[in-house]
Design a protein that fits this description.
Elements (H helix, E strand, L loop, with lengths): L5 H11 L4 H8 L3 H8 L10 H8 L3 H5 L4 H40 L5 H28 L1
Helix pairs in contact: 2-3, 6-7
């Protein structure tokens, strides 16, 4: 089961207790709009009020803090998308490098390429491999 966001957790537990947003708001000493913002992950309660919120929802503060924040979810999605795009770029660069190498060999066998042009094609391939290496170096530095 996927971990719930803070807001989803508050909404689920509040509903299980049979409370409306207004009921919880009154118990917490805030407005129902504040509770609505919590549940939509637009804000979170003040740190000092977390023990009271946890008590009202029938869980520990630790359990309450285990919920994902919206910022964590966005960061995870962004990181996942970045890794997917990075892998695709790396694959395309390797494909171009391979194509340049195969193309030069094939054109040389057919005697259809001048040495100067063959070197240019190989240079493109080597440049692509160098970019792949730079991507890997950047990934290592991030860790």
């Amino acid at each position: 089961m996927a971990q719930q966001s803070f807001g989803e957790l508050v909404r689920t537990l509040r509903s299980e207790k049979g409370m409306t947003q207004l009921d919880l708001a009154r118990k917490m000493g805030v407005t129902d709009k504040a509770v609505s913002k919590w549940e939509r992950d637009l804000s979170i309660p003040d740190v000092g009020s977390l023990p009271k919120l946890a008590e009202e929802l029938g869980i520990s503060v630790d359990e309450l803090l285990q919920a994902k924040t919206a910022a964590q979810e966005v960061a995870e999605e962004s990181d996942s998308a970045r890794k997917g795009i990075g892998a695709m770029v790396e694959l395309m660069l390797k494909a171009v490098a391979l194509a340049m190498g195969v193309g030069v060999v094939a054109l040389t066998i057919m005697d259809e390429v001048e040495p100067r042009n063959a070197l240019c094609l190989l240079g493109v391939g080597v440049a692509c491999l160098a970019l792949v290496q730079l991507i890997h170096e950047g990934d290592r530095e991030e860790r």
